[in-house]
Design goal:
InterPro entries: FA_desaturase_dom (IPR005804). By secondary structure, the chain is mostly helical. The protein has 16 helices and no strands.
Length: 333
Amino acid sequence: MTHLSAKENIQAIVKAIKAEEAKLRAKHPLLTHQNTLGLVILLLSLGALVGVGFLYYLAIIPAWLCIILAAMAASISHELEHDLIHKQYFSNQPFMHNFMMLTVWLMRPNTISPWYRRKLHLHHHKTSGTQQDLEERLVGNGIKNPLLRALVIVDGLLGLLINAKRFSKEIKGFHFFKIFNAGFPITTAYFIVLYSVIIFHGVNLFTGLAQSSPAWLLSTMSLFEFLMVVLIVPNIVRSSSLNFVTSCMHYYGGVTNMLEQTHVLTSRVFMPFHLFCFNFGKTHSIHHFVPNQPFYLRQMLSKKVLNVMREHGVRFNDFASIKQANFYNANAN
């Protein structure tokens, strides 16, 4: 690490990121068509999601393969949503912008409305690493109990219910029903499908419910089970991977500047999770320094920029912080 001040180190990192972006844009003129690129990536990922679902419907691929491929396709839509929150695509064309926002929500129905999440995410950039960072705390950041943390990571609704009282005391302006209602109607439908299938099969395990159920109920459960394979479970895999990675890499407590908000996850331990969150742990720290940048550019410039970030004080694979509920220890090596 250099002997510069935190402000000077941050400025050096931002300068390096912007310089590398300028080089890439000069080298690849296609990058100037940012709106078109975003829309094409969205349509391709949507097509992939629908395509693997159709292959499963025709019994051409097994359920496990459909889940893996669908989760990977959905992970791209998360990156697009992240970009849309920062208005990287069609910022001056409301219809196209909102069309993309709705589409990425439909592809990831276990998340709250992207229009509401914009508020949470922009607030996250202002409060990252502190008690007020609701976005990261909703996915497990700062939780010491490993069982509770795992539950929050896997099931956002249960996590919200469990932590509502604590958040009400600690986070300014937190209101349970604002978060809960931000999922209506898409996230609401997601949880109806998920818990209907769990309850039906749970009851059936002990009572033989399926044998005495009316045809309409069995038909509904058949549809719900199909949705579980092509959309619900893939998004559980996707969101659990993302939540685990992001809650590991963001610090909670002890943070005094942007250098201390995140560390970079390059360890091979995270490779299986990165598969379902588009290499998030390795590239997201770049976003904290330059937020207004499409996700594919972060991927393209990460190799060179990460070396600069390491030289200027950003930590890599700080596993000690994870054991300490994400606390940033200024005295750690």
